[in-house]
Amino acid sequence: MRRTLTIGALGILSAGLLGTVLAANAAPAQAPDGPRPMQVAHAGDGERMDGRRRLSAEDIQAFTDAHIAALHAGLKLTPDQEKLWPPVEDAIRSLAKLTRDQHEARRGRDRDPLAETAPEAIRARGDALTARGDALRKLADASQPLYATLDQAQKQRAALLSRPMGGPRGPHPGMHRHHHDD
Predict the structure, then answer these.
(1) How far apart are CA 20 and CA 32, in angstroms?
(2) Rounded Cα gap, residues 100 and 152, in angstroms
(3) 121: which of 29, 73, 148, 149 lies 20 to 30 Å off by Cα?
(4) Is residue 30 part of a domain?
């Protein structure tokens, strides 16, 4: 029996696109003696510890929109498949919003690490992971009907388009591993 290792290429998209966008706001990945990362020039909401500007909420939303549009365009959906796209897009956007909100909440807690106890921090992390798991399950449920109608070429494009872009460290380890059907 053939098995596809795509829990939802569309689910991976959400993790990948948000990881890519939010990685731009993360700590620098290279050694201090390495090249400085490119700076984002805009009127953002402050500077990071490495002196670069943070991406604004508007910037992050623009990148999210671009990634969703790229996936949608790349799938080249038929008219019947187009009818199944809106719930997928809604689930991706909901996951993106949850991820942004969690990132902001974490950033707020990081400003004063002594503001919460270790058990409170563990509970907050558990709650965040549970919420993310719920959102991913909703995305999997929303994408299943569409994914079932995709032909093999569309499934391949979905898998390629939904891979994480990597952020400042480049492609994620194992990103280029090819999962073949058994």
Answers:
(1) 22
(2) 33
(3) 29
(4) no
Tell me the pLDDT tens digit for each residue of 60-113: 899 999 999 999 999 999 999 999 999 999 999 999 999 999 988 888 777 777
Spatial separation of the C-alpha atoms in residues 47 and 40, rounded to whole Å: 10
The structural domain count of the chain equals 1
Does any domain span residue 175?
Answer: no
Domain span at residue 19 reads 9-24+43-167
Q: Is residue 176 part of a domain?
A: no
Over range 147-170, report the average pLDDT.
80
The pTM assigned to this predicted structure is 0.64
Q: Report which of 170, 166, 150 is spatially closest to residue 77, judged by C-alpha positions.
A: 150
Residues 6+ apart with CB under 8 A from 14: 91, 92, 95, 96, 99, 136, 139
Task: Assess contact for 154 and 76: CB atoms under 8 A.
Answer: yes
